[in-house]
Specification:
This protein is of the alpha/beta class. Helices cover about 25% and strands about 25% of the residues.
Length: about 190
């Protein structure tokens, strides 16, 4: 088990209670929170249910960016959404970094808008390129930092951010390309991780 999955299972989930939205699917994660009946999952893959990787209490099948709900959440997790399946499509590396940035930024913006003040947002993409977004959440939107773990060679597969929403500020992050700082490294050395 990777360090980040271990962290999610042993440290993050056991502290959660209230309305929880876990974007993605994992078996039995609902049993790790204090309020399993209010743990919801969301996945665009309609086969997640047949694999048993969803909350047995409430599951949504759609793209997160298209998701509409009538209430806000106390906790939202966007863990593991932007990994190899996001970066590689049918074995081909996605080279449109602006497109990738827009999906990540719009997803975090949407999660921020659906989160109650005092609620927590947990994010875990497999690139350190999201650091400017994490800094923005802390410095501009005034999230209280609960945990931040960079992706590293020590077994942490995702760059983890976990913060508590203090204010309901407008989300106006304007960096067009999260990869622009290291784009030459990516193109000349064939690397894609931050």
């Amino acid at each position: 088990m990777t360090i980040d999955k271990q962290w999610v299972q042993e440290k993050y989930l056991p502290q959660l209670s209230g309305k929880i939205l876990f974007v993605g699917s994992m078996p039995d994660y609902h049993n790790l929170v204090k309020t399993p009946k209010s743990f919801e999952t969301l996945d665009f893959d309609p086969t997640a249910a047949s694999k048993g990787d969803i909350s047995p209490y409430k599951h949504h099948v759609c793209d997160f960016l298209d998701f509409k709900n009538k209430y806000n959440y106390d906790h939202i997790s966007l863990h593991g959404l932007w990994g190899n399946g996001f970066v590689f499509k049918n074995g081909t590396l996605e080279t449109d970094k602006i497109k990738l940035t827009k999906v990540i930024v719009n997803s975090i913006k949407k999660a921020h808008s659906m989160l109650n003040i005092g609620g927590t947002l947990q994010i875990g993409p497999n690139t350190n390129n999201v650091d400017p977004l994490y800094d923005y959440l802390l410095n501009e939107l005034k999230y209280e930092l609960l945990e931040r773990i960079p992706r590293s060679s020590k077994g942490c597969a995702n760059n983890i951010f976990w913060g508590k929403k203090i204010k309901d500020n407008n989300f106006t992050f304007d960096k067009e390309n999260l990869w622009d700082i290291i784009i030459n490294t990516i193109e000349t050395k064939g690397l894609f991780n931050g």
